[in-house]
Automatic annotation (TrEMBL):
Name of this chain's protein: Immunoglobulin V-set domain-containing protein
Major subcellular location class: membrane
Membrane topology (UniProt): Single-pass type I membrane protein
TM helices/strands, residue ranges: 161-179
Lineage: Eukaryota, Metazoa, Chordata, Craniata, Vertebrata
Transport is among the record's keywords: no
Length: 184
């Protein structure tokens, strides 16, 4: 194995480790103004007709949806939804309207999956954790803008180690390309 391929292998392993470490521990931060709407992001890897999704805090159920049927937790009536059309596309984001100061909390999205082998079992898979903070806004500045997580398009920024690793890898390949061209 030559030096280039061993370095490439090490870079790829490092990137895999960084991505793996980052994926299981992230909490997405979302903030919104009092009275506005916030979207708490969530994306499913697999979807079926009867996908069962649940949003909760440590102390209470906020929203549940299974197919067309849904229920809203106490204090969240007529303010929360995971639109069924979006859920069918794998988007399990919770839309929380008319934000109140008491909505500041950490929310967890959970997918309930039924397994049928010898017996029927139900597994609960946590999909995302979202920390919502609600800000008071002076009355003259109130708006109905939708808050977004971490950036304008709803993307979560990658961990800095991942960005450093990717930058190093790209730099390595650019240097290799430059040196190969100068040797030709």
């Amino acid at each position: 194995m030559d030096t280039r391929s061993s370095f490439s292998s090490i870079c790829m392993l490092w990137i895999s480790v960084c991505v793996g470490l980052h994926s299981g521990e992230s909490v997405i931060s979302v903030s919104g103004d009092l009275g506005s709407t916030a979207v708490l992001p969530c994306e499913l890897k697999s979807v079926d007709i009867e996908t069962h999704i649940r949003w909760r805090t440590e102390s209470e159920i906020v929203f549940k949806r299974k197919g067309e049927s849904f229920s809203q937790g106490d204090g969240y009536e007529d303010r929360v939804d995971v639109p069924v059309e979006e859920l069918r596309k794998g988007n399990c984001s919770l839309v929380l309207r008319n934000l109140q100061l008491t909505d500041t909390n950490v929310y967890m999205s959970i997918q309930m999956v039924r397994r049928i082998k010898r017996s029927v079992t139900t597994e609960f898979k946590e999909i995302s954790r979202v920390s919502l903070s609600v800000r008071e806004k002076p009355p003259e500045e109130k708006s109905d803008e939708v808050s977004s997580p971490t950036d304008v398009v709803g993307m979560v920024h990658p961990h800095p180690l991942i960005m450093i690793s990717i930058t190093a890898l790209i730099s390595y390949f650019l240097v290799l390309l430059f040196y190969e061209e100068t040797w030709l």
